[in-house]
Request: fold
Amino acid sequence: MAQTQWTDYLKLLRQLTETVEQLAEVERQKAGAASRGDVAGVDECMKREQVLSLSLRGIDQKRDKMIEQLGLRGVPLRDLVEHSPEGLEVETRRVADTLRQQYEVFQAASSAARNTLEVNLRAIELYCAEREADPPKEMETRRQTDFRA
Reply:
């Protein structure tokens, strides 16, 4: 296995780490927007998520090819250092650990955003149900006026 291929693979893993880090930041922003009731902010975050997801798909396709070339099919990230070329063990461990840590940060941010959105969605549903059950007087008047017209 050529060291150049391995260093290219580590470079790709660093790129993956950066993208996951950006996704985590978007998730934190989305949770903040959801807790403020900022629908436009949530929508903007979701658009950025889509762009980053496409980027992740491209990285994943490259990663699949590189894994095949390096003979790493089925090797988990935690065991990657055991397959690294001599002299690149420390760098491989650092890159793999950083990616794993960043993924954990993303999972936590994603979970918080999802929970915040779900709580706010329930509040909106309750509000709408209450309005349907007991509409404001001006709406009733408007309905009567519209009906007579």
